[in-house]
């Protein structure tokens, strides 16, 4: 076994427009090569279930090596990968520029894409990843009441599990007829104040989840950033970022969403706006995944350079002396789960750093995956695995019994709080920051 590289990892573009990318035989050859490297290393066994699945296939084969695994079983490994990226960013010693150039998540993406183009996907999976259509319909007045009541009804949930394979015990998001776009109102009259690389003029990409499922969090964003003298307003129009379709392997849908979103966002950048979003996966989509799919697209690169994690942005403002640190309310003990798609942005623990500025606040960080992924934790066949992945975080939260539990990913926060005994809900760190400032809660 060769020694791993000590150089900073680099990412190669996703060559999804090449014929070779879609060739099943070429793909299987590359899968066998990478699986053999993973089998000889096994450092990532404690992450998602993709690695235990692979190693079980090897250990149960006639040769006890990858060459004994039936290639028809390779998709079983890809099915368990939800592109959290932690293996690439935190575990694997053979990522580029190492000569073996292992990029396990993007190889799994390729496997998903080839299979999707050949076989399609279940109606349930197409439904769960069609967030624009489903969320907008579920938020229609009266329809929202029916959907929310159905999601809380045990009998209805058993029927939903039987019909669509959505696990009866998985918490499902609520839908709001008063979406963030209906609540936001006009932009505040704040003169932009540039600090460092930030312009002080910020456009909030609300995202499907932020607009329809958690509009209160969007209101928290508007209140906190305006309290810090940042001229923030909503992106004028948007579609889903494409992450759910990416994880499904539906790259043609990702392309359609990119063509709808990038021109709008690039125009905002041209007008002097920085960009942010309340969901780490959406931030990562514009910071990493789309730039790797479209490495030569100038507009994509422009959007990438202007997109910030919200707490990364606040921390940059703080370093420039422009963050309001006049807090009125201590938060006490905070258990904070660092979302995977925020960790792999390589910006440091900025949420912890910002919350740590609040006097009388102690933030304990849990750097383990929640196992949610948006759909993985709600599907009948993977719900138990997601619970197993989340268990170390749940155990730590229960041991701490904090005053608040938070995650930058609202879905991860809800998932962990649902499993934990010591907390009854998960909160977004921006909600906690609003509380620390003594600002009225969202909706008041």
From TrEMBL:
The protein's UniProt keywords, in alphabetical order, are: 4Fe-4S, Iron, Iron-sulfur, Metal-binding, Repeat
Protein name in the entry: Fe-S oxidoreductase
Asked whether the UniProt record includes Glycoprotein among its keywords, one would answer no
Gene Ontology molecular-function annotations: 4 iron, 4 sulfur cluster binding; metal ion binding; oxidoreductase activity
Q: What InterPro entries would the database entry show?
A: Cys_rich_dom
The residues covered by the Cysteine-rich domain are: 203-285, 334-411
């Amino acid at each position: 076994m060769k020694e791993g590289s000590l150089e900073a990892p680099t990412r190669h573009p996703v060559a999804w427009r090449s014929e070779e990318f879609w060739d099943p035989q070429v793909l299987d050859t590359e899968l066998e090569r990478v699986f053999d490297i993973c089998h000889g290393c096994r450092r990532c066994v404690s992450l998602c279930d993709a690695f235990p699945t692979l190693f079980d296939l090897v250990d149960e084969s006639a040769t006890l090596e990858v060459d004994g695994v039936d290639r028809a079983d390779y998709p079983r490994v890809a099915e368990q990968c939800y592109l959290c990226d932690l293996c690439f960013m935190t575990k694997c010693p053979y990522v580029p520029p190492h000569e073996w150039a292992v990029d396990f998540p993007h190889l799994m993406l390729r496997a998903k894409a080839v299979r999707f183009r050949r076989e399609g996907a279940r109606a349930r999976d197409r439904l769960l990843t069609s967030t624009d259509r489903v969320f907008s319909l579920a938020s229609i007045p009266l329809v929202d009441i029916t959907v929310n009541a159905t999601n809380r009804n045990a009998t209805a949930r058993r029927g939903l599990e039987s019909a669509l394979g959505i696990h009866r015990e998985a918490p499902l998001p609520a839908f709001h007829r008063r979406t963030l776009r209906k609540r936001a109102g006009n932009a505040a009259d704040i003169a932009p104040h540039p600090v460092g690389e930030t312009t002080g003029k910020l456009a909030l990409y609300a995202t499907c989840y932020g607009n329809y499922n958690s509009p209160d969090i969007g209101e928290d964003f508007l209140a906190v950033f305006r309290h810090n003298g940042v001229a923030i307003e909503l992106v004028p129009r948007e579609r889903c970022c494409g992450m759910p379709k990416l994880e499904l392997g539906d790259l043609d849908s990702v392309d359609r969403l990119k063509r709808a979103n990038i021109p709008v966002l690039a125009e905002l950048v041209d007008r002097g706006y920085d960009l942010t979003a309340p969901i780490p996966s959406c931030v990562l989509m514009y910071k990493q995944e789309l730039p790797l799919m479209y490495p030569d697209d100038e507009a994509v690169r422009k959007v990438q350079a202007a997109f910030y994690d919200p707490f990364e942005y606040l921390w940059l403002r703080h370093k420039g002396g422009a963050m309001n640190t006049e807090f009125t309310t201590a938060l006490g003990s905070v258990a904070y789960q660092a979302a995977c798609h925020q960790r792999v942005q390589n910006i440091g623990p900025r949420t912890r750093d910002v919350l740590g500025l609040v006097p009388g606040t102690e933030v304990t960080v849990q750097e383990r995956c929640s196992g949610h992924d948006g759909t993985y934790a709600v599907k009948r066949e993977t719900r138990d695995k997601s619970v197993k992945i989340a268990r170390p975080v749940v155990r730590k939260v229960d041991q701490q019994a904090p005053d608040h539990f938070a995650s930058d990913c609202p879905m991860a926060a809800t998932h962990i709080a649902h499993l934990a005994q010591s907390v009854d809900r998960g909160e977004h760190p921006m909600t906690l920051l609003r509380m620390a400032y003594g600002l009225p809660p969202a909706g008041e």
